[in-house]
């Protein structure tokens, strides 16, 4: 294990990835330089691990907090794998099918959805530049589920939030929400990594742009919001850098004095 006293966590969409869902050359070089200086680098994302294998290869990052803290891996070692309870999964699965709403089942192996060719599911995955997922409305009955994705209007989402008060509904697209336990977050996953490394929170840095990054920002020692982040996210950060497509990672690391 690399001996270091600092670690930087990077969100992916809207942060490490540009608007074209590619990694800027300046970002790759900045991460390489951090690693050469002995500063540990990690990913903190809402995505499932299989969707960012290529990013880990291109950045040489082996540690990640994925599925919003529900599945955490440190250099190949699984530190945390949290699944949603069967009763809740059964209830929300029945409700979404009755209401014609899209539902995605997410775990460390990937994403499966409850119905074919749903327009709102398509909208969400096109924003990722991803293909339509596998379809199995009964997936939750035979496989672990770490997080759900709900696809419906904002008004319709309120009905689910009222029905499941112990769960957070975090918007990541116009008509798409991550659904996970209220005590789950990227921050909880980061805590597992810091514990494994023996590092204090003051030595942890995080870059992000989304609403699911706010808990992480509150937890780490120094938080950096991308220039393209929502105002609420910027207000939770210590520093605001340039946008994800305008060398935001490089410029933020320079402002932090890490480069």
Keywords:
259 residues, Rossmann fold, Hypothetical Protein, Haloacid Dehalogenase-like Hydrolase, Chain: A, domain 2, 6-stranded mixed beta sheet, 24% strand, globular, phosphatase activity, magnesium ion binding, HAD-SF_hydro_IIB, HAD_sf, Cof subfamily protein (Haloacid dehalogenase superfamily)/HAD superfamily hydrolase (TIGR01484 family)
What's the Cα radius of gyration?
A: 18 Å
Helix-strand makeup class: alpha/beta
Shape-level CATH architecture of the largest domain: 3-Layer(aba) Sandwich
- Count of distinct structural domains: 2
CATH superfamily of the largest domain: HAD superfamily/HAD-like
Protein described:
The strands form 2 sheets. The chain has an 8-stranded mixed beta sheet with strand order 5-4-3-2-1-12-13-14, sandwiched between helices. Strands 8-7-6-9-11-10 form a 6-stranded mixed beta sheet. The protein has 2 domains: 7-81 and 184-256, Rossmann fold; 86-181, Hypothetical Protein, Haloacid Dehalogenase-like Hydrolase, Chain: A, domain 2. The chain is built from 10 helices and 14 strands. The chain starts with 6 loop residues before the first strand and ends with a helix. Helix 2 packs parallel to helix 10. By secondary structure, the chain is α/β, with parallel strands linked by helices. The model has no long low-confidence stretch (mean pLDDT 96). Helix 5 (119-127) links the parallel strand 7 (110-113) and strand 8 (134-135). Helix content is 34%, strand content 24%.
